[in-house]
Structures are given as C-alpha cells and as structure tokens.
What we know:
By secondary structure, the chain is an alpha+beta fold. Helix content is about 60%, strand content about 10%.
Amino acid sequence: MPLLRLIPLRLLFVLLAGVALAFCGQGAGWWTGASPNDQGATTDAATRPNATPDRDSASASGVKDVMPRAEASPRSDAATATDPAAQDRAAAAAAAAAAAADRAGAILALDAGLLARVEAVAALVRRGAFHAACDAIRELEPESRPEPAAALRGIALAAGWPLLSGGVRDPAPFEPTTLSLQGRLVRTSKDAVAARVLAQSGADATLRLAGPLGVTFPKFPMHRLEPDSVRADEATELGFAAYATADYEAARVWCAIAISRSRDISPRTDQLKALLR
Length: 277
C-alpha cells in the first residue's frame, strides 16, 4: 500500500484502462492484421465457392450458342453446291453471261470493221479510183445488208454526195454528154494496165491494148473507162454517160468523184446529183 500511495490515482486509472483495452482488442481480432472488409470478402468467397466456375460455364455456353449461327452460311453454301438444280441454274446463268459478252464483242468487231471498209470507199472516191470504189461498194452488199447501206448513206450525206448505191425510181431526161476521151490514158478495171483511147463513137471508145498475143483494139462503154487523174468535169460527164445506160451505180460513183474533186459544184454536176435522188 505504501507503493500505491506513491502513484497518483489518476495515472493508475489510465494504466488499468490501457491493460483492459489491450485484452479486449486482441479478443476481438483487432490486432491480427485483417480488416473487417477482408473478413467479409473471405466469408463471401467461402460461402459461394462455385461463383467463378458458374460464370465460366455460362460464358462457355454462350459461345456454344453463337457458333452454330456463325457456321450457318457456309453450310448453306455447301448445300447449294451439292444441289443439282442449283448447279444447273448457276451454269445456265454463266453460259448466258458468256453468250452476251460474245455477242457484244462480235457487234463491236463488226462495227469497227464496217466503219473501216466504208471509210476506205470514201478514200477511193476522193482519189478518183472509180473501179476500186465500185468493187469495194459491191463487196459490202448494201442492197441486201442494212448495216452497210446505212453506213454508206451516212458517209455520202456527210460529204454532200448522192447515195453510193441504189437505183432510180423515175429516170428523167437530160442533155446527153459530149465528152471525148480520145487520146486519154484509161483503165478498164482496177488492176488493168493503162491504155490509150484511139477513137470514140457515141458511147463507145476504142482502145489500143498490148498483150501477150500482140496488140488488140477492143471497145468499151465510155463510162466504164477510168481516166488517169480524172478531172471533175470529166467525172460529171462520165456520170451522165452511165445514167444514159441505166448503170446508176456507176453514175453515183462518178458524181461523187466529181463533187469531191471540185471546190464548187457546177450546174451540170448539180443536175446529175438531182437525177440520182
């Protein structure tokens, strides 16, 4: 008791309270290093041990549900590929597309080739190559084929020529030609050698031709003779000569040559063009 009297009563009370607090806190688990939240999490995990496996199994189930839908399209394509009717329809569609492409290519090729041939005819006319132009027009067969006929018509209209093919419905009277080719070098066909005109009687001309058998003197219709470097007035009169014999194709070509080789159409050429309408 003498020792207790030396210690103040207030200090003694504080020491006793501290000892009591220490014993109570250890019993409650305050000094174990774990917080109440940690204890709650541990308890929750302990009471629900299968929570994570359930979520994993649910996720796996979702993947399995989606996968069949993703594979539906390939299986449909495979089914179509093995269907004979579907295969027949696909083959027919492919064949139709290929046939359409072939037809389009053929049309394009025909148009390009036709245009080139018609332009060649126009070039021959401008050059005054009567026989070559007539041969090229006949090869196009404009009387029986509408496409060449339309192409030749377009070329002629653009150049101001009469149509290069076709007949005449109502032949009209005109003043006969007085053209003389005597002394001129002429050709009787596209590939013939030039020969000289010795004489002319009406619509016929006599030529002097030298051949393997010697010299001959054949006669030809005047409008079928192609003079070298034909002039515009000569072409016009040869057109009238052809018109007089109802050789309207030759008359048309001669008229086109006359127009192409002259800057201004003469009244005589204009008359011939009017007759060929």
